[in-house]
Amino acid sequence: xxxxxxxxxxxxxxxxxxxxRAEFDGDPADWAVRNRDTLRTAVAEHGQLLVRxxxxxxxxxVASVFRACAHTLMADPEPFAPRRTYGEGLYSATKWPPNQQxxxxxxxxxxxxxxxxxxFACLEAPVSGGATGxxxxxAVLDALPADLTKRFEQEGWVLxxxxxxxxxxxxxxxxxxxxRDAVSAYCRSHAIDFAWQxxxxxxxxxxxxxxxxxxxxxxxxxxxxxxxxxEWTMDPEVRDYLVEEYGAEGLPFNTLYGNGDPVGEDVxxxxxxxxxxxxxxxxxxxxxxxxxxxxxxxxxxxxxxxxREMLAALADPxxxxxxxxxxxxxx
Length: 331
Ligand SMILES: [Fe+2]
Known about the structure:
By secondary structure, the protein is of the alpha+beta class. Helix content is 26%, strand content 29%.
């Protein structure tokens, strides 16, 4: 039974994500159902909310809480790195080398439909590091150099991907199938230009808007993965190896200006510096749940040591076309 049925209080501290302490001794999913409006209102107001103190016994409990918080859990479309699937709509965190930073990004910002809400839960916190960073995408847009944002607003951005057998997400991981006809059909229907290579690999190119308008609150936001999926964000040794092995055009992923020009290392550095200046961090504790407005707020993951068991869900899909992208969607 709950100790109190009153509306939980949300703690706001500078440099910290909004925090709600769940004080109860019942079923976490019941608590989430009872407090769903409070949780969703807080995310709409602040762009993010950390819920601490839920007694999450395992993936099933997490799934129940996620389903209570979200309208719809969705599949992970076109992932660039694999996740473990725990159940329908319930995934591990993206598999990424623990000693490498995952830079700021909005989940699947390169797809035509992306999650409006991201849900994260911690079952085991790492020994050290592993914080999730959060950055307000409207503040980032305001802080970036005007000439840089103007060009991306006018042109949009391009994501290029090459699917090899050896590295990065496989065709089956990215598209749910390795059947050529099915993959080709997916690309045609999702505004992805594609070309099968003589060695059997696939190269794709998708052109998207870099600045969107939030479909609910109307804020203009820097919404893309120009920095994170750039060759200049890769570990230099990894990049050098990949360029040597596959050629500059054959990297597993890279980003370009909307007109196809390369994005310089200096631009990517500025993007990551502005993100860093606007980052608040969630130092995970076991049983924490984090709700993130995926359009309003970018997220990242810091390097860590030791086991780190995180679950994630993509929820409440939003259509790119409903966010007034400043550059046209095209292949
Ligand atoms: Fe992510």
